[in-house]
Amino acid sequence: MASLGIVREFLSEMSPIEGVAALMILVNVVLVALRSIWNYAFGIVGVAIYAIVFFHAKLYSDTLLQLFFLVVQVYGLWQWRRSQADAGEVVVERLTADARLGWLAGILVAIAGWGWLMHRFTDAALPWWDASVAMTSIAAQILMSVRKIENWWLWIVANILSIGLYAAKGLWITTGLYIVLLGISLWGLAGWNAARQRAGA
To answer: Domain extents for the chain?
Structure first.
């Protein structure tokens, strides 16, 4: 049957290390949505493994992105612990309208610059698409670390871009992961909005 052949092909292309990385990131994002500080334990392991996966796929922007995430994960852990110590919970905040425009402009400039560098100086596959995922994700990770609700809007965009990119590269576990992460991002946005409303912010 054709459907069984597709399933066999899918399973034969699955990488065990990619599966472990996907599981770590899935748990990480669920815990972020729940505003649990334990998300960082899973996030650090997940991004370290994904750095290896993306390097072998020649997605160099995403490889460097994972290394950046390692640093931001440590910073975020410090920020979240401080908020928890001060308020008894991880407090959700919002950017001003001017700050949102500034972040958007910065992301677009970063995509243009990084995409050009990857296109000009490396053999990166899909450099502009990859750069869009990387730069949007960097902004989202920073905003998540400082507890800004806008991080979820950026993750939604990054997840949509990632689904197409990883499918194009045949990283099927990761494609599936980002479909799930898109759903979790929508859930996380709703949950963080509810937390702000409960706090009267």
So the answer is: 10-85+102-199
